[in-house]
Amino acid sequence: MKHSQLTGFFICLALIGVCFLPWVYIESKNILVTGLSAPDTNFGKPGLMIVIMSVCCAICFALPYIILKRFNVFFTAFMMGWSIRNFIILTACFMGECPKKYPAIYFLPILCLACLLAALLYKKKL
Description:
Elements: H1 4-18, E1 22-26, E2 31-34, H2 48-62, H3 66-91, E3 100-101, H4 103-120
Antiparallel strand pairs: 1-2, 1-3
Helix pairs in contact: 1-2, 1-4, 2-3, 3-4
């Protein structure tokens, strides 16, 4: 609890890094989907929202204002929901074909949960 803000800041940086790693590979179309690149699919850029929210969270973790700590809980909860959405959509089997999952797609919700816990464990000095 003492170092939750510093830990949360570094987790946000790790989340940004995970968005550049490969998440899934669709063999039939020979497509490698990362957080910021999903060519020839309807996924768009699934990790772009994670990157934007991670930057907002990192700013909230870095600055010592109490109102930013409260906003940070909202940002991290939204980011957690978005990561679960990405996990469900990208790893779903379609017409009998399941994409090959890489470890980065598993790190995404785990790191978002850790970021949420770091935001919730903020202790204000009295």
